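User: quick one, sequence for these tokens?
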């Protein structure tokens, strides 16, 4: 049996029922249900715990605060006897570093950060590789020749997404334009969908027809903008794109028909971290036009699920992990919501590019390594 315990409740009532393991998660800025980074990490832990619940009773304690209170969250969960605590987000590095030394019998996983401690596993990703692939999709399918990128906090990590995306776009379309903007320069940038929506609006005015959002909960503003606008009226000639032929074979919703004219063209977003394709389904019908072109998968869920399994199997090892295409740590999403939008020829090309990147024949620039 699994129990999900909010930290406040755990502290008030204690973990009264016997359990085999206590595990915890301290959420980063943007909160648990950001639909992206935090939520993906949490769902990975939940998936692993559910797979184990026939044989083990595992308590999952959650702490949702701010970057300034994350250390407090780690300390409180560790004091409950947790064997494992997962902290998504580089902003938790200092807190985990301090608290992990106080509780040597507790193991930690930090995602997107580095903590050099004997009981901490640091997991990093090659976001630039996955971003290259979704950039290649955008560069192949854009009809205006202008695509967008909305980043959250302007930090090297998000520049890493941005640069990989730009390189992928230009590999498919050398004369395409990429418009890039950032929500802000503080952690508040992860949770400001209104500002992200403003940026998406401005990018559309510059001609973008596809916008990639790597902005945590702020990315919801980009998704909302695309779903609300649905389409645009071309102001000039459209470039030759496989998307034109594809769209001719996809039915649209009644809302799209009401809002958009016969000559209008659809807008698309590209999701991030988790598979957000389904969020472009504006009429709850996957068979009609979806506004989620694809999502860049950053498998934070795999990192957190693996940690849970490693604890139970007594195989947890601290140190550093870097997950890229070769480790299936990043990629792109194709499912019932967007499979009609991605031509088979493009899928073949993406497969070849993936192999080239894994084998080192195609080098995607890592902004953080420059």
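Assistant:
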């Amino acid at each position: 049996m699994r129990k999900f315990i909010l930290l406040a409740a755990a502290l008030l009532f204690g973990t009264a029922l016997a359990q085999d393991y206590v595990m915890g998660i301290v959420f980063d800025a943007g909160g648990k249900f950001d639909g992206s980074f935090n939520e993906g990490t949490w769902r990975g832990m939940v998936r692993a715990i559910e797979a184990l619940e026939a044989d083990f009773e595992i308590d999952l304690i959650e702490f949702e605060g701010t970057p300034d209170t994350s250390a407090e969250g780690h300390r409180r969960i560790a004091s409950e006897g947790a064997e494992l605590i997962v902290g998504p987000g580089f902003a938790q590095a200092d807190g985990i570093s301090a608290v992990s030394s106080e509780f040597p019998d507790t193991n930690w996983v930090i995602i997107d950060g580095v903590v050099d401690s004997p009981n901490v596993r640091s997991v990093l990703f090659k976001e630039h590789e996955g971003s290259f692939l979704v950039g290649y999709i955008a560069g192949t399918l854009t009809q205006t020749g202008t695509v967008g990128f909305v980043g959250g906090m302007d930090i090297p990590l998000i520049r890493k997404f941005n640069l990989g995306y730009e390189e992928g776009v230009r590999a498919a379309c050398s004369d395409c334009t990429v418009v890039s903007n950032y929500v802000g320069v503080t952690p508040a940038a992860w949770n400001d969908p209104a500002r992200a929506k403003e940026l998406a609006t401005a990018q559309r005015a510059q001609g973008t027809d596809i916008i990639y959002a790597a902005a945590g909960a702020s990315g919801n503003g980009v998704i909302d903008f695309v779903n609300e606008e649905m389409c645009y009226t071309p102001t000039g000639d459209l470039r030759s794109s496989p998307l034109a032929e594809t769209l001719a074979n996809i039915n649209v919703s009644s809302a799209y028909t009401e809002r958009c004219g016969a000559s209008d063209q659809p807008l698309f977003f590209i999701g991030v971290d988790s598979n957000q394709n389904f969020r472009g389904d504006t009429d709850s019908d996957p068979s009609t036009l979806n506004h989620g072109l694809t999502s860049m998968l950053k498998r934070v869920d795999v990192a957190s699920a693996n940690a849970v399994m490693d604890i139970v199997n007594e195989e947890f090892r601290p140190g550093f992990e870097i997950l890229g295409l070769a480790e299936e740590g990043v990629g792109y999403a194709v499912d019932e919501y967007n499979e009609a939008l991605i031509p088979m020829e493009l899928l073949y090309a993406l497969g070849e590019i993936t192999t080239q990147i894994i084998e080192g024949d195609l080098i995607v620039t890592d902004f953080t390594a420059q």
